[in-house]
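[stage:ingest] chain + small molecule (calcium ion)
[stage:ingest] validated
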Amino acid sequence: MTTILIVEDEPAIVELLRVTMETERYTVREAGNAETAWRMIEETPPDLLLLDWMLPGQSGLALAKRLRQQTRTKALPIIMVTARTEEADKVAGLETWVDDYITKPFSPRELKARVKAVLRRLTAEASEAPLQAGLLMLDPVSHRVHYDGKPLMLGPLEFRLLHFLMARPDRVFTRAKLLDTVWGDDADIEERTVDVLVRRLRRALATHHLDAKLETVRGSGYRWNPERQNDATASS
Ligand code: CA
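[stage:predict] done
[stage:export] tokens:
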């Protein structure tokens, strides 16, 4: 049974979130502010948090940061619910703290899709199932990467970066987020180190003409695009 904790202060939105989640047969719990949510999570962590940004008292973002700092709740899936009025640059940095976000007003269908995608991603990671993009195969158990049966030689950091990105195709990640994922939160490393690592990973991918799949998104960060082909590969 999957439990969703809704943290939201507007009754109408709570209702919409609750009804939508219940049609998916999730068990729903509710909290009207961050403090109540914190206590409920301490007691029994839910499987996923639908977290409003603007709450009375402590904000949803502050709660997310607090949860990420605790070993027990570090990996708790969080989808942030934001309003259009929130500043674009702040929203862009959100992915450092939450798994995904959805902007009000949203349709029940969009909400369901986001929740399912986050839960599915976690299941895939937990099961350590091999990840695939065309002929490229990454095996999280043996830490091996193959292309068309031929091994791809990667260092541990390159492997971790590729693993993270392949598990989350088509999503843009900031350097800060990637830094945190590959090196861990405590690492005191500059963000441009991420660029160096990306270059190394691209060089390894280039041996099989796969480097175009690791895209640079100007002003934002990086994205794994499994559909993208190197120009040379596409024309041959
Ligand atoms: Ca609110």
